[in-house]
Amino acid sequence: MYLNEQLFVDFLKVKEILWVGINFSKAKFTRAGFDFSQEILTHYFHEWNMLILNDQKKYDIRMSFRKPVMEYDLSAVTKLNKATKIGECLTRNIAMKDVYSDDQMVQYLSGLNLPKSLPYALTFVVESFDISVKTAAIWVAIVKPETKEVVLCEKFLKKPAGFGTRNYWARTFYNVFYDIQSNSFNRWENMVQP
User: What is the pTM of this model?
Assistant: First the structure.
């Protein structure tokens, strides 16, 4: 986990957050369970992003991150997701939950060009969906787009549930929001208390 304490304290003071979407550009998928065409995989990327926007009561960014105002701009993440090549994502066997280190993810996030309409942007970066161990590894990241500084970056491991590929893996995003709302946000706040 990475936390810039000074920026996080400032983040706690603002009332707005910009949701930039679920980024799949660094993701790895076990071939079993994801042996799709490029078009179908890109379609799922879009569907998972639309779920967050279309069911904001279930995937509650405002409540999870204690922000009364949420705006969204998926343009940067949509572009990254469309450029993701299926041949680079699929793999047979790998320790999926350990693909990227904190330092590697912070470096990646620092290089992103995200919309600058609000002081802080929130994104999920999917590290892996591993059907063999039924686990998703998802990085939750808060970035200051103006300076490209990473405020917070933490990996969550969550279990999928449900029927059909879309709903099965969508459950992992719900589980991340629930974890943040019920536990992790308080833990982050406590880390920056004097």
Answer: 0.94
